[in-house]
Amino acid sequence: MTNNTSGMRILQTVILGLSLLCITSCSHKEKENKLEKPNIVWVMLEDISHDFECYGMPAVKTPTFNALAEEGTLYYNCYGTASICSTNRSAMMVGAHQRLTNTHHHRSNREEPLASPFQPFTYLLKQQGYTNVLGHKNVMKKGRKIDVNFKHKPIGKWEEDYGLFDKFDEFTAEDQPFFAQIQLAVTHRGDWWTEVREQSEHPVNPAEVQLPPEYADHPAIRLDWAKYLDQVEYADNEMKMLIEELKAKGVYDNTVIIVIGDNGRCNIKGKGYLHDPGSRIPLIIKWPEGYEHDKESQQIIASTDITATILDIAGVELPDYLTGQSFIDENFDRKNVYSYRGLWDEIPEQVSSITGERFRYIRNDKPEIPYDAHQGYLEWYRPAVHVMRSLSEEGKLNEIQQRWFEPTKPQEELYDFINDPFETHNLANNPEYKDVLKQMRQETLEMDQQMSPVSKVYDPKIVPGLAPVNFVKEHYPKEYQRMLDGEEIGYKKYSKLYKKHLAKEKSKSVQSK
């Protein structure tokens, strides 16, 4: 009995030791597997086209983005499925076209949950063991912008309270694998542009900028373009800081860095329009150490493809509802990108487009709304439009420049952007291109059907439109004239004055009753 008891104790000890060894080994293996997954840092610049030095933009210096492009892959043909921030961001957060998910109207349906089966990709990353980080404490405005058109919270659990991220502002080695989404807001139009320029050690020389042909060559327009490039250089410095932090924390080599724009630059034919400056966005990817990649890529990529690619990198099985595709998959072969423009503030647009390898087709379903629609938001932030309106009235614009100020838009537009990169020749009425027009028209109609919204809910945010501008015109005529002369006089300042004016008028109305 004693021998049996002793033998049993020995056996129990051996079993316990083996169990502990197994637990330790398994735990170590789980840790190894977790660290094998690369970290992913998604840096999203606001309102930017191909305006880095590595894309050939004159007068600007972007050594950090240039170096990333040299180390990784520079993509030339990435297009947004939308050309406005919240709609394209909604598409990228889900990986499905914004029209399909009924998130295609700017800043609408903010209290409406995503329809089933759609989910934010951060939720899928979370299930795969990723820590989701939003923003960074050392970039302008902390880089926390989400701006999607469905019910959500910045931090929380998606299945409980619609939370999209786990934490704010800082990634650590202990968070690995982590996904960090960081917005570089400086390139968005804002009251800080002049200050950034004044603090720059080498502000861009307006005489050195090269304006596209749709712009009048005017000192105010050159200065505005130079200021924009000053913001791009500021963003380059922010990118440098982020890279230095990744290296200091020892996680750079195992991190994928994705640099992208949310839509094109905020200027003529840019943000809000489906022409090339509004829809073609920068894309640079720095891959993990040892990952084989091309230096440059001419692949046609939709903004939703980036979402699918992130999920693929993280080892997530791609959901069937994605309209995006992983472009690191050997079977990836996108032929075109379907884009859509809906409501933007008080302008109820309806525009569809298809962009292929050579041609872009645009169908304007509301041709009665002109390109220059006198949208309230844009009155504050497009000095070129104010200057060129005056030049138009004086008959001083050439044919290409004048098109932007015609009372209507063409029903259809067709451009050969390989041979006409600034899209100055609309080929829609050219009989030599009737077959191309017919084919792309049909492709667009088919995509309209495929991307029909899953819901008819329509709850847009109400905006004041031109009322604040008219307030400045009436009460601050000198400042209004500065605006007409091509100056940004400060939206926030006069927006606050306008709101105080409304409150005062409301108080008077109440007292008079």
TrEMBL record:
<protein>
    <submittedName>
        <fullName>Sulfatase-like hydrolase/transferase</fullName>
    </submittedName>
</protein>
<dbReference type="InterPro" id="IPR017850">
    <property type="entry name" value="Alkaline_phosphatase_core_sf"/>
</dbReference>
<dbReference type="InterPro" id="IPR052701">
    <property type="entry name" value="GAG_Ulvan_Degrading_Sulfatases"/>
</dbReference>
<dbReference type="Pfam" id="PF00884">
    <property type="entry name" value="Sulfatase"/>
</dbReference>
<feature type="domain" description="Sulfatase N-terminal">
    <location>
        <begin position="38"/>
        <end position="316"/>
    </location>
</feature>
<keyword id="KW-0378">Hydrolase</keyword>
<dbReference type="InterPro" id="IPR000917">
    <property type="entry name" value="Sulfatase_N"/>
</dbReference>
<dbReference type="GO" id="GO:0016787">
    <property type="term" value="F:hydrolase activity"/>
</dbReference>
